[in-house]
Amino acid sequence: MTVIATLGPQGSDGYQAARQYDPQATVLLYNHIPDLIAALSDGRADFAFVPVYNTREGEVREYFRVLEGLEQGHWIDNVVLPINVSLGGIRSDQRLDQVRTIIGRSTVFRQCEEFISQHMPDATLVSVRDLEAAALDMRDKCHEHQVLIDTEEVINRAGLSLIARELAPYNRTRFAVIGRYSAAQTGYDATAIMTRPLADRVGLLVDILNEFTRRGINILDLRSENDIKTQKLQIYLEVEGHQQSPMVEEALTYIENKVIQVKQSLKILGSFPRVDMRIKRIKTFGFIGSGAMTAWFAEKLRGEGYQTIVCGRTSTLRPEEMIERVDVVLICVPISVTAAMIRQYGGLLRDGQALILLAGESESPLQTALETTATGVEVMLVHNLWGPQAATMKDKNVAVVRTRKSGSLCSEFESFLYKYGAEIHLDSPEKHDTLMGVSQKLPTAISVALAMTLAEHRIDFSDIDTHSTLTSLYGVLSMARVHNQNPRTYAEIMATGGQGEKIVASFITHLQQIANLAQHSRIDQLCEIIAENKQAMPPFFLKNKMRQARAVDAVLSDIGFKGD
Ligand SMILES: NC(=O)C1=CN([C@@H]2O[C@H](COP(=O)(O)OP(=O)(O)OC[C@H]3O[C@@H](n4cnc5c(N)ncnc54)[C@H](O)[C@@H]3O)[C@@H](O)[C@H]2O)C=CC1
Ligand SMILES: O=C(O)C(=O)Cc1ccc(O)cc1
């Protein structure tokens, strides 16, 4: 039989939280938080339930210090309990303006502050630890003009009459479940960490937070306290991910060794399944296509608590069956087959579902999706501008093309991109395709053509570094990147249709024109062209790009980055 230690009396919210967690458990009731921890430590209890946060009161300050001293226990789970606070007394028709004394617990008084100041502003608040004894005393002595605030169960158990219910709406308390063994990973976890009192150091808090940020780890909670004795800062953090997940583990090790630089300066209170207070409409995402980008998004979505179903060409589950079971269908196949997939499956989506295209071309796939889906189906296109090797989407660009049929499911997907730090750019279909002509089709074509040219002239690749200028290196880097990834990705990019085509066509015309002028030594004309081009570039753009270029130059001139 499980034994849970929590704050009493019987019927208290701690008691109810324990019941909610395990209806069969034996519940041991105490009046002080340290007593719960003691019961866990000496083996009287399997779990201690410690209130940590209340939606009306905020943090329960006492727990901060108690958890800090936790030696053997681990924070392994949470219970969020709706708290219904009621008012009891000797008579159910007690007039509130005649109440002189209110008995209760100090935390409950804080939760009911609004009600008390509105209805019984002149009453004296008497805060008690042993509520049960106080309630019985009140009943036995028939104290008129005295009332008690707590759960209805406590009021009933003491034989008092109910005067009013729901004194504090939206009142919920989060209890930490402290156990003796740490909790295994579920894939949707959070980790609570506390620092020891920290010595002053410029930027320490920012530097600690940055280690999570740069690893794409979301911070759920952050608090600080001053250690009573030393008045040194102590930081409490709750971050997404299990302490054993590589990213979290790496961040914590780095913070301890490189940021704080003090051994055992971090205390991991525990990892537990994440407490999700947000309302999510999407439960399941279904993918059509089982390639690299699908694997990347599916993993990130699962980490956010969503279920995912992936259908590839060889998987036994067919897209027809998958579509029936999901809220959002993501089509993530090569660009050249995206429209065909939409035509094949778009009509199977029901009203209330969403079709989100993860693809590098916008206009024609979106038009197909709008034509083939029912009126009540949401449609949107998302083009992530990072590849499947990216560790996180933090600070990376993503083009989002919403349509007249994009609704709240699409917004929820957008929120997911936002949450993990992606830079969202809202485009029209035409704008997206034109800009992809500039940032993908053309640079890829140039890179591939450059490699073909080097090959034709049997250029020795070791001569590239010895003869490169700072400027010429950029093109070489781009060529190397394109030829170091999946050829299909870049072949598909070069073959995209839509507005991007005009960019490549126009480039070819201009290249030819420049080559002709150069061949005929029209140096003045070439100068004029460059000057005219510069006129079109806003000063902020040139300034910013030159700044970035110098930063790249500095890195590339570093001996460690020179080719060997
Ligand atoms: N790989 C990358 O760097 C990026 C890719 N994307 C986009 O993601 C989408 C998917 O790309 P990846 O996952 O990289 O490709 P991938 O080649 O890794 O996977 C493509 C998937 O589509 C399936 N597939 C291929 N031909 C098919 C056909 N004729 N019928 C049905 N299914 C077929 C394959 O079996 C595979 O499951 C593309 O639209 C691409 O534009 C977007 C940003 C970056
Ligand atoms: O990492 C790079 O350089 C990429 O080019 C990744 C990439 C490939 C295909 C896309 O549609 C978007 C981004």
UniProtKB/TrEMBL annotation:
State the Pfam families in the record: PDH_C, PDT
- Give the Gene Ontology MF terms in alphabetical order: NAD+ binding; prephenate dehydratase activity; prephenate dehydrogenase (NAD+) activity; prephenate dehydrogenase (NADP+) activity
Give the UniProt keywords, A-Z: Amino-acid biosynthesis, Aromatic amino acid biosynthesis, NAD, Oxidoreductase, Tyrosine biosynthesis
Transmembrane regions: none
Biological processes, Gene Ontology terms: L-phenylalanine biosynthetic process; tyrosine biosynthetic process
By its UniProt entry, which InterPro entries does this protein fall under? 6-PGluconate_DH-like_C_sf, ACT-like_dom_sf, ACT_dom, NAD(P)-bd_dom_sf, PDH_C, Preph/Arog_dehydrog, Preph_deHydtase, Prephen_DH
| Coiled coil in keyword set | no
The reaction(s) catalysed by this protein are: prephenate + NAD(+) = 3-(4-hydroxyphenyl)pyruvate + CO2 + NADH
Pathway(s) annotated for this protein in UniProt: Amino-acid biosynthesis; L-tyrosine biosynthesis; (4-hydroxyphenyl)pyruvate from prephenate (NAD(+) route): step 1/1
Instruction: Please indicate which superkingdom the organism of origin belongs to.
Output: Bacteria
Residue ranges of domain Prephenate dehydratase in the record: 3-180
Segments forming domain Prephenate/arogenate dehydrogenase: 283-548
Ranges of residues in domain ACT: 193-271
Which residues, by range, are in coiled-coil regions?
none
* SUPFAM superfamilies (alphabetical): 6-phosphogluconate dehydrogenase C-terminal domain-like, ACT-like, NAD(P)-binding Rossmann-fold domains, Periplasmic binding protein-like II
Is NAD one of the keywords? yes
**The enzyme's E.C. designation:** 1.3.1.12
State what protein this is by name.
Answer: Prephenate dehydrogenase
This protein's species is Desulfofustis glycolicus DSM 9705
